[in-house]
Amino acid sequence: MKFTILHKDSFSGARTGTIQTAHGEIKTPVFMPVGTAGTVKAVHQRELADDLKAQIILGNTYHLYLRPGIEILEKAGGLHNFMNWNRPILTDSGGYQVYSLSGIRKLTHEGALFSSHIDGSKHMFTPERTVDIQRVIGADIIMALDECTPFPCDHKTALKSLDLTHLWLKRGFEHFMNTTPHYDHGQAFFPIVQGSVFAELREISAREVCKYPADGYAIGGLSVGEPETSMYEMVKVVTDILPSDKPRYLMGVGTPVNLLESISMGVDMFDCVIPTRNGRNGMLFTRNGVMNMRNNKWKDDFSPIDPESSCFVDLQYSKAYLRHLIISKEILGAQIATLHNLSFYLWLMEETRNQIQAGNFNDWKNTMIKKLTIRL
After folding, report:
1. Are residues 91 and 34 part of one domain?
2. Which of 8, 236, 273, 306 could serve as a FRET partner for 114 with CA atoms 20 to 30 Å apart?
């Protein structure tokens, strides 16, 4: 994997670049639609590629391991073949999902023992095992196994968790370096910075992951309930330390405003379920504010969903029709709203790249953030 920085903003840490992978080039900053189980919910792969022009999507090791299982994925020739997606894929190691199973998992130095949410069966994720699973999945970018701390947690708990994450990172990185890709394309490995909302621990973790000559670095454990101000503070601490010549990935974040603020601190990659999940619930993000399609005001508004968008659903369907579908819980409503939100997020990243290149990012960002907070 090769990362090249193309432009830097003069008034912030924002930058544009390219990540070259075996399955194509990724222009950064980039938003990765979440395809947890080998599908971005309610969206065809053809729509992702042709209509949305998504550059890369995210899959999840935990969910794919449990279903359909790595045996099926191996027979298919990897996730790219299985889901018919010939562009880059990143896989989360499953650490966050194990974290969410707090009542049915046990963490040790060896790894994470957990019960399947599907049938209750017992499984063990070790740092080595998650590398092996991601080798079989065949993602272009794979993640280290980490422990995500809840919010709030005390300093002692966060420190103990951080020690475990660093122990797992050492083993996972060594195993990655001592194994080869399962298919005929290379894979990159990203360590993950943890440390909850304690600046001291975030600094320790950032300096620790820098000891590993990885292809990129991730920031995890944020957007788990902490105040936005704390999230931004932690991002700034970490981006000031991580190598400037490697991509930085802020995991699980976030709202359009979160993305723009984080880009200004030097973050290059994002993923989040907000555009898809909120879309299915009738919340639409636009460049002029947020629309709640359940509101009665849209009941007889027959204008296009978003005339400023280039996405076909925004121009072909009316606000009144989409509201009707959402209220009626019709599947098409979820599809339209999801396509709209993903289109907006990907437009936002494209426009961000354009503004950085033109030298206007900081002023444009501040204006855009004001618009994004408006409730239409």
Report:
1. yes
2. 273
